[in-house]
Amino acid sequence: MSSINPRKLDLSTSVIQINLGKRFTAASTLHKELKTNQTCLIQEPVVRKGVVGNVPKSHKQFVPFTQDKPRVAALLPKDLGKKTMVLAGLSSGDSITLRSNINKDLSIILTSIYMDITKDIPSDLITRIASYAEREKLPLIA
Predict the structure, then answer these.
(1) pLDDT score of 11 more than 70
(2) Whether the model pTM is above 0.90
(3) If you compute the radius of gyration of the chain from its CA atoms, what whole number of angstroms results?
(4) What are the backbone angles phi and psi of residue 80, rounded to the nearest 5°?
(5) What's the rounded Cα separation, in Å, for the pair 28 and 65?
(6) Residue of 136, 134, 139 whose CA lies nearest to 111
(7) pLDDT value at position 12?
(8) 86: Cβ–Cβ under 8 A, 6 or more apart, which residues?
(9) Rounded Cα gap, residues 128 and 58, in angstroms
(10) Are residues 87 and 98 in contact, defined by beta-carbon separation less than 8 angstroms?
(11) Which of 12, 41, 43, 140 could hold 17 in an S-S bridge, CB 3.0 to 4.6 Å?
């Protein structure tokens, strides 16, 4: 396992997670309060035509590709968003998994999963995401 010099990393983002309950008021408040350097993993976002509404200009949105309305999304600071891709094989309407290149020495996996209380925990998906992160030797934030 290789060691990483923390002084060479620019990890100036924090990660927050929120369930918006598909409420416009909650989404509007979040988007006003979202700090420039914050990454936000969202369950039950307000999505219209595949787009999260009112995303601040400082952020890039990620929504899984699905025919149904997605129940997850992620908002990343634009700088990080430019270096991020959706891992389609690990994403669905109820989950989005992203690979972000923090810098040349470090990439991370971000995942947001909506867990429906009427369904079983998606343990197969969680196992596949963890296996991918382990295989690629990448940190996982879920």
Answers:
(1) no
(2) no
(3) 15
(4) -75, -40
(5) 23
(6) 139
(7) 65
(8) 62, 64, 65, 96, 97, 98
(9) 31
(10) yes
(11) 41
Q: What is the DSSP string of 10-49?
A: ----EEEEEE-TT-HHHHHHHHHH--TTEEEEEES--EET
DSSP letter for each residue of the chain: -----GGG-----EEEEEE-TT-HHHHHHHHHH--TTEEEEEES--EETTEETT--TTEEEE----SSPPSEEEEEEHHHHTTEEE-GGG-BTTEEEEEEEEETTEEEEEEEE---TTS---HHHHHHHHHHHHHHT--EE-
Find out whether 126 and 140 touch, Cβ atoms under 8 Å: no
CA distance 23 to 28: 9
The answer to whether the CB of 81 falls within 8 A of the CB of 60 is yes
